Amino acid sequence: MAPYTLTYFPIKGRCGALKMLLADKEQQLKENLVTREEWMKGDKKASYLFGQLPKFEDGDLVLYQSNAILRHVGRKHGAYGKNDCEASLIDMMNDAVEDLRQKYIKLIYQEYETGKEAYCKDLPNHLKPFECILSKSKSGFLVGDQISFADYNLFDLMLNNKVLCSTLLDSFPTLKSYVDKIAARPKIKALLECESFKKLPINGNGKQ
């Protein structure tokens, strides 16, 4: 029996980073897929806390909110720093990734046709802090000397944005190297090349 169960839509969406973390840590995941049609009927939505997905189950523990799930799994599998200070810095990094993800989500679901050009033009301004942080990192990760859940989250978001703006990382050599390094991790590489993962759309509205 798989130790973890994820209930979510058949997209990468907000669970790409989670799946990468679990794969990298060699953890099994059972998936329950919910179609958009099922969800719109309202029965499932009404029965879930906050009326949203993903839903994550770890034994008797049931979690909602994608970043809370990432933190929980990171905490359990050595991807949340080595001490309280590192954990706080990882939280800060993940919040910064979330800020950028919110901009991406707004574009995809609200402004795709009218805002794509402006988004791609502005995106480098939001990548500069990550380039700066990584250029000073001896380990090549955001915080400390080991990969954290914030790294998986940033990596996932960079892959999404590269689909949107193909030359995105050309002006950010350290960030480009970072993305390439994480992509080359054996378990991550295997997941990215897995047909069942590759065929999932990034978003739920047909954009990417």
Sheet bearing the most strands, described?
4 strands, mixed
Number of strands: 4
CATH topology of the largest domain: Glutathione S-transferase Yfyf (Class Pi), Chain A, domain 2
> Mind telling me the C-alpha Rg?
17 Å
Number of helices: 9
| Count of folded domains | 2
| Distance N to C terminus | 33 Å
Q: Which parts are unreliable, with pLDDT below 50 for 5 consecutive residues or more?
A: none
The portion of residues assigned to helices is 55-70%
Order of H and E elements: EHEHHEEHHHHHH
Subunit structure: Homodimer.
Family: Belongs to the GST superfamily. Pi family.
Keywords: Cytoplasm, Mitochondrion, Nucleus, Transferase
GO molecular function, one term: glutathione transferase activity
